[in-house]
């Protein structure tokens, strides 16, 4: 059995001049993930107590878990000293750590969605953490906020943690994708899914069909295509939508499928965030052999203009994404 820590050290040995900073950054994220996992696991209990007087089991005012997760990841990265700039989905502005004594020479910038899909927590459905790591290119004269607005293809690493029936950490540093399952008995993430590859095609489509009336025509046409019987392509496809991006994409990564959150009448540029959700998931899925686009443009090529920018996303098995792109191209 290989732990995440052992795996990271082994990988670092491939780069004799590496100083171990990225390894330490990943370690900091994994430690915070374990702490968040512990709280997510007892969320139901905490909710019961909260309903009786807004106090948690320590007698403190109960924190909502997404805020709790944000605090855990933020402080782990702050203390770890390898992150000079941190952007979290929970904060309007990025957090500049470059003036902290421990982080002043740090060369990595991190974007994080501390608890994605947190509206699912109350009903005990899987939630996740998504992270994305960039290297700081130059120190002057641009502000770090501007410097962070890099295309997704410049990510150094990206990953997610899924707090599900078991807890997993899946990440890439641009050399394939590996998945680690948390063994609660020893408190370690252990390599369980080496070299993950997404099937080239699949039979699952994941989209919030309740919004059908608000979808662009191309997406409506694709949904109809999924539902038409055709033995050659094994249609009709199965519809699976958890409403937790990490869980939906994780399932499709293993089984094969496509996840779509398009532009809608309510969210004209899509709902999901480029920097916190789409770029890291796109990097992982591409590294596993899949594809991620807006329906017409590769997600990782988009030049971000703001931290909380939203984009439409079509992500998953290569051939299925291309089929959606075909429907988009027919509407031009
Ligand atoms: P959040 O970052 O506020 O948790 O929202 C992101 C979540 C994704 O995990 C999920 O795919 C999507 O929102 C679901 O949205 P909807 O309920 O509109 O289908
Ligand atoms: Mg989110």
TrEMBL record:
It is an enzyme of class 3 (hydrolase). Substrate binds at residues 116-119, 208, 241, 271. Residues 198-328 form the Fructose-1-6-bisphosphatase class 1 C-terminal domain. The keyword Transmembrane does not apply. Mg(2+) 2 binds at residues 113, 116, 277. Pfam families: FBPase, FBPase_C. Keywords: Carbohydrate metabolism, Cytoplasm, Hydrolase, Magnesium, Metal-binding. It is found in: Cytoplasm. It catalyses: beta-D-fructose 1,6-bisphosphate + H2O = beta-D-fructose 6-phosphate + phosphate. GO terms for molecular function: fructose 1,6-bisphosphate 1-phosphatase activity. Its cofactor is Mg(2+). The keyword Oxidoreductase does not apply. Homotetramer. This is Fructose-1,6-bisphosphatase class 1.
